[in-house]
Amino acid sequence: MKKVRVGSGAGYAGDRIEPAIDLMQYGKLDYIIFECLAERTISIAQKKKQENPKLGYNDLQEYRFDRILEAWRENPVRVITNMGAANPKSAAEKCREMAAKKGIIGLNIAYVTGDDVTDRLEEYRDCVAIETGRPLSEIHGEILSANGYIGVDGIVKALNAGADIVITGRVADPSLTLGPLVYEFGWSMDDYTHLGRGTLAGHLLECAGQVTGGYYADPGCKDVPRLWDLGFPIAEVDEDGICVISKLETAGGMVTEDTVKEQIIYEIQDPENYYTPDVIADFSKVCVEQIGKDQVRITGIDGKAPNGYYKTSVGYHDCYIGEGQISYGGSNALKRAQLVRKVLEHRFAMKEMELEEVRFDYIGMNSLYRDEISREIADFSGYPVEVRLRVAARTQDWETAELIGNEVEALYTNGPCGGGGAEKRIRDIVSIASILIPVEQFEIRVALV
Asked: Is the CB of residue 294 less than 8 Å from the CB of residue 255?
């Protein structure tokens, strides 16, 4: 029975590159995927593209492809990635330029477009945002982007055209793996059982090191060997869609029933109805079986017809967050930090600052569990000898946000005593509203460079 080996090269925009190169060199792969987009990532990329039309792809693309192309020269594994973000065309052209400088010839690079509907957003202003239940038109911030989560269509077309590297924009995470499986096995797009099984394989690979123990590790409770040398996963999938997850024998981490089960339920609200652009996958009867050291087989997955819509992420400028931090040490540290909170609250009122929300955290005391639970823990452990106060506030203008950090920094000479390590910063916050747009309103295009 034919089998396809797909490796995971990245689980988020800033992931490590070394485990991916190891897989390309030693994993006997047919494909490797690099999943590098989150909901807000592409909106931030759109802002960069507006500033420079040649940018808008993943910040680490050139760093990654410098290593990927060298590995590809020795082991020509087909690469599929959404590192194109807001500008797949420029990403593909940059990849071609880098390959040429390395003297690599005969490399076919394809890019997929059609997910970006920003220029047609006026047509969808009456659509209801999933997060708020209100029309998109009620968003007050500047809208930056609108990108639909498209499926495997463009990837399959690119592979049929002979692409060695496929660079996409906003493709749904599991579709990066499902695409080559559809291409290799010739699965029909109404064969929902096989599409559901392939989607599960993609879901297990999309977060890279999470399934090999990265997000599983908890010292003393769930120990993971050589976490510093964590290997990324491999999915070996047969033509019936049965998947075995493994890793390189020489890499750190582990693949067990538990690491796989944790990843299966990751970000899954309804195991019976996991919506993707290609299929509604059903993970409710999944069976996870350890078949060897660091080898787990997954069966029992099904699927049904997709709902005919692409979830579309609309990125918009929400607010600015001004932040300041300062540390207090020694006896009475907590009471001094609490006095600082009172001082800052008075200062903000005196300046009549228009703040939508203000948050004070005593880091080491209540920043993780908030006040009630934190107090109970403190009753057992006693008071700390060091506290770092963090204040953050949401506001609609940069100038007000800047005042937050300035007021914290002024505590150096204006008391209380013993403060140090003050820091301040301002963040331009991009938020996401999600709407549903009919599939037929997207035109997926593929081009070779």
From this structure: yes
**Could you tell me the sign of the dihedral formed by the alpha carbons of 91, 58, 243, 154, in that order?**
negative
| Distance between CA atoms of residues 156 and 160, nearest Å | 6
On the CB side of 345, CA atoms within 13 Å amount to 10
Report d(CA 372, CA 378) in Å as an integer: 10
pLDDT tens-digit readout, 37-83: 988 888 889 889 989 999 999 999 999 999 999 999 999 999 999 99
What does each C-alpha distance from 32 to 177, 182, 183, 260, 371 come to in angstroms? 9, 15, 14, 19, 45
Q: Which helix (H) or strand (E) holds 328?
A: strand 309-329
Whole-prediction pTM value? 0.91
CB 155 within 8 A of CB 180: yes
Upstream peptide bond of 384 is cis (omega within 30 degrees of 0): no
pLDDT score of 399 more than 60: yes
CA distance 212 to 247: 7
Give the integer Cα–Cα distance in Å for 51 and 57: 13
260 sits in which H/E element: helix 257-264
Structure tokens at 272: 């019976």
pLDDT tens digit sequence for 237-265 = 999 999 999 999 999 999 999 999 999 99
- Give the span between the Cα atoms of 444 and 153, in whole angstroms: 7
Nearest to 230 by CA among 2, 422, 8: 8
Residue 327 to residue 411: CA distance in whole angstroms: 11
CA distance 440 to 15: 34
Q: What is the DSSP string of 142-193?
A: PEEEEEE-B-SHHHHHHHHTT-SEEE-SSB-TTHHHHHHHHHHHT--TT-HH
Pairs from 212-220 (Cβ < 8 Å, separation ≥ 24): 212/247, 212/251, 212/253, 212/254, 212/255, 212/259, 213/253, 213/254, 213/255, 213/256, 213/259, 214/253, 215/262, 215/263, 215/266, 216/258, 216/259, 216/262
Nearest-CA neighbor of 103 among 60, 68, 62, 69? 69
